[in-house]
Structures are given as C-alpha cells and as structure tokens.
Amino acid sequence: MACARANALHVRCPTTTGARRASARRASRAVRAEATGAGEPTGDGDAQVIVVTSGKGGVGKTTSSANLGMSMARLGYRVALIDADIGLRNLDLLLGLENRVMYTAMEVLEGECRMEQALIRDKRWRTLALLPISKNRARYNVTKSNMSTLIKVLKEMEFQYIIIDCPAGIDVGFINAISVADSAIIVTTPEITAIRDADRVAGLLEANGIYDVKLLVNRVRADMIKKNDMMSVKDVQEMLGVPLLGAIPEDTEVIVSTNRGEPLVLKKKLTLAGIAYENAARRISGKTDYLIDLDRPKKGILQRVGEFFAGDDE
C-alpha cells in the first residue's frame, strides 16, 4: 500500500530506498562507535549536533525544535538552540525570549561581542540557551565556515546537545545548517506535499554524509486515520524509509503556547502533544523507547505504538 502511494507521489519506494538508507546508517553508527565510543555526550567537547529540518515550511519544525530543546534541558542536559532561519527567525518568540535579543551570532563572528553575550539563557531552565544567527542579514553572509566556528565555540562551552532549527527549503541556508550536523530530525505531516519534500530532504542529508536521521510525524489526527482520510504514521515511515522518533498529535494548545511564549512541555497539565515531545526527547538521549498510543490515552499514555497507530485497525 505504501509503495503504491509512493509511486503516485513520485516518492522512492521504501523497499529499495529504505533498505539502502538503513544500511548506510548502520555503517555510519559502527564507524562512529569505534572512533568515539558509545554513550551520552559528556559536555567535554563532544556535544551532539542535531539539525531539525523539514523541506516544506509550516509543518511545525520550529515548534518541535523549541519543545525538544526545552525537554532536553528539563532532563538535565545543557542545550544550545540555534535559530538558523535568518530573516524569518521565530524560535525566540516560541520561547518567550524575543525581548532579550541584544546580540546575534553575526556580532560574535565579527568580533563585536562574546558568545556569552549573544547567548540568551532561559530563566525557567538555565541549562537552555538560545543563539539567533542574525536579525536581518542575507543568508549568503553566513557560510559553512561561520557555522563551524559557532559550533566549535559552543562545544568549548560544554553544551551537551546543540539543536539547529534549519530554514525551510533546500537552498544555501539549508546546506549551511546541515554542514555541521552529526544527526538530523526530519519533521513532516501526514500530507502528500510534506512527505514528498521530506523525502527530498532525506536524500540530500544522505548525500551530505548524514545517515543518523530520524522522523518526527507532526499533527497526527487519530479520528482521520480511522476514517482512512489520513495516512497512518506507519505509512509515512515506510514511504520515507526513516526510523521513527515520535508522532505528535494535533493540538489546539500549540497556538496558545506560541502566543504566550511558553513551550507545550512547560504546561502544568501536559497535553498529549506535550507528552509526545517529552518522550521524543527521552528517545534522543536514549532514556526510553516509548511512543504514545493515541487510541487508548486513558489506559496508559506511555505505551508503545498499537495496532491502530500503525494503521492496522481491528
């Protein structure tokens, strides 16, 4: 079924593309494990650099970056969030830090300020810091060399995770953002346009030597999947041939949290979407292997994906 849809969308069939990507990922992980050893980042210069990308705009990439970054900080890790979407930055708004942006990474690169001055520490969780790349500079002014310099300085500051909010599209901003990444998270929705763009991004990541790629399916609606009006998470994963990091249910609280500058994961009473982001953050750090079962939230939120979530309704 997934292959038929893939052919209709001109997306490569997972039976070939998925197997090739999986083989490349295994080989890449083996090489890294042998060279650096297994385990979590310690903060001694070995920070894990993760780029969050999508291809298509409007799928929740920046929202996911904010919530994953905040969740990682709540788990006790030192996290740096980089807003690489130059000219259209929104990460500061989602974190409620827009009024505290005094300097950006461009001022750091030009020697006008120190990195510590440009970093905006979140007052709620001091282990989380935001670094906007620029306020209004053109994208071509930020090069791969600039990105490498910024990452090197952040690693020296003993951050354990560096999460880059990548610009939408696949132009020079995308190429610069992924050039410094160790791994990637592709955010998509169960829509044909978003899936096609995500497939293109997955291919570009692979072409640039990034094989540790995971999939985050956003705005999943259980009622539409039951009616066969929306592709299941399993269908989306099989079409892209990328391991699943998590699935985020549609949530009206996203608009409320955005307007308040407060990520979903900070709400006292977490919604399913907030819980899904927290679980995804735990999976990134290797703490748990849980995914939300949207069909039976009251019986156990931290359950593995059930038959319904995989698209196998009884």
From TrEMBL:
Keyword Nucleotide-binding attributed: yes
Annotated binding of ATP, by residue: K56, G57, G58, V59, G60, K61, T62, T63
Function: ATPase required for the correct placement of the division site.
GO BP: cell division; negative regulation of cell division
One protein family per Pfam: ParA
Protein origin, superkingdom: Eukaryota
Designated name of the protein: Putative septum site-determining protein MinD
GO molecular function, one term: ATP hydrolysis activity
Keywords annotated in UniProt: ATP-binding, Cell cycle, Cell division, Hydrolase, Nucleotide-binding, Septation
Organism, scientific name: Ostreococcus tauri (Marine green alga)
Family: Belongs to the ParA family. MinD subfamily.
Cellular component per GO, a single term: cytoplasmic side of plasma membrane
Keyword Cytoplasm listed: no
